[in-house]
Amino acid sequence: MIINLLDCAQFACTRYVYIFISFSFHVQNSGDNSMKRIYVILAVIAISALVASGIYVWQEHARQSILLATTTSVQDSGLLDAILPDFETRNGISVHVVALGTGQALEYGKRGDAHCLLVHAPALENVFMQNGYGIRRITLFWNTFVLIGPKTNPAGINGTDNITQAFLKIWNAGAVFVSRGDLSGTHVKEMEIWAVCGIDKEELKERTWYVNASAGMGTTLQVANERNGYTLSDIATYLRWRQKLTNLMQMQIAVTPEIRNDYSLIITKTGSVEKPSETDAFWNWMCSALTRSMIENYTINSERVYNVYW
Amino acid sequence: MLDAILGATLRSLAVSAIATLLAALLGIPLGTYLGMRKMHGRRFLKSLIYTFYGFPPVVAGLLIYLLLSSSGPFGFMHLLFTLPAMILAEFLLAFPLVLGITMMSVSSIRTEVRDAIRVLGVSRRQEVMLYLREAKNGILAGVMVGFGSAISEVGAAMMVGGGIVGETNVLTTDIMVHTRMGNFEYAIVLALILLALCFAIYFVLARLEDAGDE
Fold first, then answer.
1. Mean pLDDT over residues B121-134, rounded?
2. Of the residues A43, A69, A133, A165, which has the maximum number of CB atoms within 10 A of its CB?
């Protein structure tokens, strides 16, 4: 049976190739302009039919959905999988989630490829809004950044330190520090803390103990685990990975506003132009008390990870 | 969960199969044509095609992303983050392989065989058929390599597909995402499925390779 099918396929292939080639030879050798014209016309018809059907199908398809660009930390925390089905059943609009670094997500928003953004780099977001790429922005919830470090704690960080003091201890001890280095929200935060410490970015890069992982949070945590280094992480990703990070632990440091990790929802200009009603519905739903309490009650390994601004 | 695995598997299969099919539909005739003819600048053309054997998937991804992005030239088609965009990217990777290997195997048919075919005085149609029969296994190898590059690829698939769950996630992008999340078990299951799938497909193709030799 299979062999028969394959024989047929083989026959069809040879016929196809023969027709194609003989046509090419014919067009080339005959010098017959009418043949050439027919060939060109056929090609144009075929291509435009393809393009037209493609446009039609995908515009129809795109009508009932919005594209949400978010950060890997949000997607990897599993939050969206837990809450989005509620929005989709209520409004009949599906949300397509693309997970990127915050820098990349904002860039996609600028280029008009995303309708909504859920990101966590306030400084970059402000620039984004000022340049008119975003129509509306609201800071919805937050969690804390945590300092992760080796169980041996070579820099001697203890619970009385705040994050700046802890970073200074790492600097003075020359202990291994693994940086995301990917312009993600976490990386931007890390750079801000070094700046508050008064440590120059360029000077930092020259230190051999400063490792640039240029990777996502999970990978960066693994690098820190392998190299016995410190790293800054969002709490959600750390909780997911904790069991696999045998050399690391969460450093006890004082909770100050600096380690607050604010997540904001942005409706992009493209979103409000292309999908006004859909993005409106999404905005209202995200801001509703019900959604906020769903976010507040979301747990990883039975620990709450997000605090909501009410 | 079974649904998710099945979906990703089917999408993997569909994207790479359609991309390979398109690459074969264009690459085999064109490759045969180029392989049969002796013409000026063939060496240059050959080197050009071979260069694209090593076309980095992320470059293909970046190219398709910039073309299909809303602010790109084809943004009006709204194809970014859809399966057709992924097919396009995989096609870009598979096409040079199919084209180049077909061309190589047709042009490397021995001179005696070529002379014999010419001496037979057959029609153009029969000539093409004879060339194809001679080069069959080489052409098949081209298609297999093209398919392999399409199904195993992750960079471009992620960049232009976005890995949207239930829409554009395929086996390779799922493996990457779940590895990032620390779900190694799930990633391993997907990896085994991918390998089994490739084995099944190549098993059938290998039979095709043997079929004509008896």
1. 83
2. A69
